[in-house]
Amino acid sequence: MNELATPPVPGIGLTARYPEIGTGPVDTAIYHEPQIYAKEMEAIFKRSWFMVGRTEQIARAGDFFTYTLPTFRQEILVCRDRDGQVNVFHNVCTHRGNVVEHRKEGHSQGLFMCRFHGWAFDLKGGLARIRDEEGFFGVDKACNGLKRMPVGIWQGFIWVCPSDEPYQSLEEFLGDQGRDTAGYPWGACTQSYQFEVEVDCNWKLVNDSPAEVYHIPVLHPNSAAPTMMASGNIMGRLLGTEIKGHHRTNSHYSVMGEPKPVQKLAYFHAAAAQNVAVEEKGYELPKGINPTRSPWWTVDLIQFFPTIGFTLSAGMYTAHQVWPLGPNKSLYQQRVFVRPAKTAAERFGQENTMVEFRDVVMEDFSTLERIQRALDTDQIKQFHYHDHELALRHQHYVVTQILAEWDREQASAQG
Ligand code: FES
Ligand SMILES: [Fe+2]
Known about the structure:
This protein is α+β, with helices and mostly antiparallel strands. It has helices at residues 34-43, 170-181, 203-211, 216-219, 225-228, 261-274, 276-279, 344-376, 390-413; strands at residues 26-27, 50-54, 63-69, 74-80, 86-90, 105-107, 111-113, 120-122, 127-129, 151-154, 157-160, 191-199, 238-244, 247-253, 297-304, 308-312, 317-326, 329-338, 382-383. It has a 7-stranded antiparallel sheet with strand order 12-18-17-16-15-14-13. A 4-stranded antiparallel sheet has the order 5-4-3-6, with no helix packed on it.
């Protein structure tokens, strides 16, 4: 909660800082046309990296978890080997394609055994054992280990690339956004909860939802609005939007308006639990977080294009991940990370924050599905973006630029 007496009213003028992005209405075709979605798969998604978990989930050699990359329907197996390396394999047995490890997570003594015919693979993916090997016709074990998937680690997050040959390294993919947010105490927030929901809308609409706060006083009058909107900011404006290549950051302005009695209690306790600055003297947020260093700052939405965002405060964060499932279907995953609470009161404060986050997101999604119906039936051909909807305009610009570049690549490849 801010103690300064007179909050400034956030101004307009964000879009003018990025003249290449324009100010006019934008064409909505990229939000629903199947052929554009198909092109996005090739030009954007197969060239991106995707966060699948954290290294703490596999702290010891032999620890593993499995996951299905929803967009690509690929099964993966993530494990730590005895050299401490994090390996990611296609979770597909090289005998006849069954998944090698069925369990969601666990610990292996050193082998993963396929439960179809019993072939076994070691922690480095090597094919260690073929049951009744003598009945085969010279299967070369050295060439039939689990297929590796490109993997990278950034700040304790495990990222994978769905293509065998990454278009760019993880470091290049994360760019300045990755460099400017490194050093945040990502690893201190060791407790998390997650929920996911399928939404009948294009992936870009899901991204758009938290990327503007223009809608908060109107769509969330009883949830987010009472605490985010007050006399200083009744229109729901941002502190700023910073664009970094394909990525971007929204910094949120906040004045405590009229919290409900339970919110007052929760915020009082959660503030102590969540604010690392309170606990760690001399701690300073990395320069990419609260980049304006405004005293009115509460949270940033750190977006890594195309589909991973972090809503991030001084000591607690939420990962938002969107997985496209079709031109008008997406899977949304929300995972909240908190520091272990020291008291029951802190825990209560954290729980309140988590539930509020979930409820606000769910309020958004029914609106998104209505928008998608209007798009699918060609009832809206243009969107008009407010100055503080710059993040949405930027996403539209980036997608359009990438698809145009892809068309040029294809044309020159065809001679
Ligand atoms: S499919 Fe795995 S052992 Fe046969
Ligand atoms: Fe919302």
